[in-house]
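Researcher: I've got a protein sequence and the SMILES for magnesium ion. Could you write out the 3D structure of the bound complex as structure tokens? I'd like something to compare against our soaking experiments later this week.
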Amino acid sequence: MSSKILKILLLLFLPLWLNAKTIPDLYTVKQQLATYHDSGQYDQGIRRVDKQAQTYLAKRIAENKKLAQPEKLAVVFDIDETTLSNYPNMKIMDFGGTPDATREAIDEAKDPPIKASLELYNFAKTNGVTVFFVTGRREFQRKAAIKNLKEAGYTDWEALFMKPNDYKEYSVIPYKSATRKKITEMGYDIVFTIGDQWSDSQGGYADKSFKLPNPFYFLP
Ligand SMILES: [Mg+2]
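Model: Sure. Here is the predicted complex with magnesium ion in place.
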């Protein structure tokens, strides 16, 4: 084979070969997601962050007690993949599904709790910290969300803020940060906000933010 032909063949097939090496197929990725979840690594990752949040909250509670005029401490929880898990539905839908199918699954109100987050939630409550939910679920899903949260073991939250039905922004950040601003204006010091998306923590109005792992989906 002449070196010219060899060069042409190399130019033609090298990109294909490199691609095959670096980009896994969708089937493999789905298997990796299931393995990450089923092996317990996903839960461990969540528990690690929830523990960090609890340690920080405990420190803040102790400091607050020493103040002549203690602050009204609050924490903000997201719902999906933070306090409730959609994993069973994601698995049924093979990590796909249309927005309608996803909404229907949410409206069934059968999502199990994320246990480490439920423990963090209860730790906040039993230590006199006010708990708020700020979720990207829309207002029309309120009834199902309340039913699901209660059945999963979450009780006595101060308020559940949901995205307005006519919300048109691409990102959830303006809504979530404006809601935290509202909570601050209610006289609370938000010690932390915790969620599985980066958009849960942008836009201020929380002393600290904690990001839980979510390898399954991204929301702006
Ligand atoms: Mg979420």
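Model: The chain has a mean pLDDT of 94. The two ends are 53 Å apart (CA to CA).
Researcher: Great, I'll pass this along to the crystallography team.
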